[in-house]
Amino acid sequence: MKIGFIGLGIMGESMCENIVKKHDDTVYCFDFIPAKVELLASKGAVPCKDSVELAEKSDVIISMVPKSEHSMSVYKTILPVLGAGKTCIDMSTIDPSVSVEISKMVKATGAAFMDAPVVKSKPAAIAGKLGIYMGGDEATCEAMRPILAYMGENIIRMGDNGKGLVMKICHNALVTQIQNGVNETLSLAQLNGISVEDYATAISYGGGQNFYLDGQWQKLRDEDYTTAFSLANAAKDVGICMNLAKECGLDMPGEANVKKVYDKGMEAGMGGDDWRSTFKLVRGH
After folding, report:
1. Nearest of 14, 226, 217 to residue 120 by alpha carbon
2. pLDDT tens profile 158-199
3. Contact, 100 vs 146, CB < 8 A?
4. CA angle (283 as vertex; 281, 285 as ends), nearest 5
5. Active-site residue among 86, 168, 236, 280?
6. 8 A C-beta contact, residue 92 and residue 65
7. How many domains does the chain have?
8. Domain end: 140, 160, 180, which one?
9. Where does the 6-phosphogluconate dehydrogenase NADP-binding domain start and stop, copy by copy (predicted)?
10. Residue span of the structural domain in which 236 resides
11. 150 by DSSP, 3-state: which?
12. Of 40, 88, 220, 271, whose CB count within 10 A is highest?
C-alpha cells in the first residue's frame, strides 16, 4: 500500500517522517516549499512534482494543510485522478462543514474519505504520540487505523464525516479557555508577589491542575515565546468554533471572551508568535 503525504509544515513534517520510518512500502511527499520536500526525501520519502502526481501514485492520500480553503484546493486539484481503491485522509483542522463538502466530492469519484485531525503539538508529532479523532464510515476508519497508528497512539472514531473535526474544535476551544484562565489567574498571582513556579506547583495540588499549565509554565516563567503552535493558527480554530456554535444556535460566552484576546493579538501583528503569547496580552505587557 503506497502512501502519499501532502503538507510538510511544523506538524506534517514529523507525521510524514514517522510514516516513512514505520511503513514497509513507498511513501510519497509534496509541499509547495521545495526545501521541505528535500528534507523528507533525505529521510526516505519519494518526492513528487505536485499533488496530482502524488495522488496518481498513492493508494492512500494524506493531507495536512493550514486552512479550509487549502484543503478544498488540494482535493479539487486531485479529484480527476481519484477513484475506487483510493482513500483520502484529511488531517487538517478546518471547518467541519467544508470537510463534509469535500467528503461528498471525493466519494462521488468512488474513493473513500475521512477526516482525522490531531491533538497535541510538535513533540508528540515527533514521538508518534498524537491524539487522532476520526470522522468517516466505520469501515474506512478501521481500515486506516494502522496507518494513523504510525503517527498517534490515542485514536478514536467520533462518527461520520466531519465529526472528527467537530471534536477537534471542541477540544481546542476547551484548551483556549483553560489557557485564558491560566493567563488571568497567573497574572493576578504575580501582581500579588507569587512566582510562576510556585503558582504552577500550587495549582497542581488541586482541581485546577491542567495539561496546558503542566507543559507551559516553565516557558511562561522564562518568557520563551518560541513558536511551536502559532497564535494565528489558534485564532483560526477559535473562529471555526464560534462559526460552528452560531450554526448550532449555541451561545458560548467563554469562547467569545477568548476570541477577544486572540483578535487583539492578531490586530497587534502577533499572529506568527506562539499561542502562549496571549499571556502577554492578558497581563498587559
Report:
1. 14
2. 999 999 999 999 999 999 999 999 999 999 999 999 999 999
3. no
4. 70
5. 168
6. yes
7. 2
8. 160
9. 2-159
10. 166-283
11. coil
12. 88
Q: What is the pLDDT of residue 228?
A: 87
Sequence letter at residue 174: L
Helix (H) or strand (E) holding 171: helix 163-191
Model pLDDT, residue 124 = 95
Q: Which one-letter amino acid corresponds to residue 117?
A: P
Give catalytic status of residue 246 as yes or no.
no
Nearest to 114 by CA among 103, 130, 125: 103
Q: In which residue ranges of the chain is pLDDT below 70?
A: none
Cell reading at 49: 512534482
At position 241, the amino acid (one-letter code) is: C
- Residue 28, SS3 per DSSP: strand
Q: Based on the domain organization, do 128 and 212 belong to the same domain?
A: no
Q: Indicate whether 196 and 231 sit together in one domain.
A: yes
Three cell numbers written together for 223 = 518568557
Residues 72 and 132 in one domain: yes
Cβ 136 vs Cβ 160: under 8 Å: yes
CA distance 261 to 251: 18
99 in the same domain as 79? yes
For residue 154, what are the β-bridge partners? 131
